[in-house]
Amino acid sequence: MTNTEFEQIFPTGDPNEAYAEFFIGQSYLAPLTGGNVPVNNVTFEPGCRNNWHIHHGEDGAGEQVLLCTAGSGWYQAEGEEPISMVPGTVIRIPAGKKHWHGAKADSWFSHVAFMTPGEGVSNEWLEPVSDEIYNTL
């Protein structure tokens, strides 16, 4: 299946070139809204995942919400079991929690993502999720 054959309710978007260095595999980004709370549809080809990363923020800012809209993927926080994401799965990630997310090896995956705005909001990109870890899922 190609990204043009992958059925989802939001656009796939363009290749996510701006953040490509923080992904293994190809991801796509489709901005859905702008403003104070940007909302994006992120699509991952099979096997694509982002690096471990941390969202920072102060006083409730910097929390991330992921809402799976199509396909099947993984979310994992450091030290926790991975969570299988299928359409309708919602994950709330507190600021300061090291985590990663991406497609399963045999499935395209899309999620809508947004972060709570406020003071000190930033992303800290860390090491890639190794094939050794990913291939155990």
Can you offer a commentary on this structure?
This is Cupin domain-containing protein. Residues 42-105 form the Cupin type-2 domain. There is one protein chain. The chain has 137 residues and is mainly beta. The chain has a single domain (14-134), classed as Jelly Rolls (Sandwich), CATH 2.60.120.10. It is built from one helix and 13 strands. The longest helix is centred in the C-terminal third of the chain and has 4 residues, at 131-134. The mean pLDDT is 95.
Rg from Cα: 14 Å
Helices, by number, come to 1
Give, in order, the helices and strands.
Answer: EEEEEEEEEEEEEH
Strand order of the largest sheet: 1-3-4-12-7-10
The CATH level-2 architecture is identified as: Sandwich
User: How many strand segments?
Assistant: 13
CATH topology: Jelly Rolls
Whole-number average pLDDT?
95
Proportion of residues in helical segments: under 10%
Whole-Å distance between the termini?
22 Å
Low-confidence stretches: none
Principal-axes shape call? globular
CATH class: Mainly Beta
The proportion of residues in beta strands is 35-45%
The CATH H-level homologous superfamily: Jelly Rolls
Largest sheet: 6 strands, antiparallel
What is the topology?
Blueprint: E1 14-15, E2 23-24, E3 27-33, E4 39-44, E5 49-50, E6 53-56, E7 64-71, E8 73-77, E9 83-85, E10 90-93, E11 99-103, E12 109-115, E13 122-125, H1 131-134
Antiparallel strand pairs: 1-3, 2-5, 3-4, 4-12, 6-13, 7-10, 7-12, 8-9, 8-11
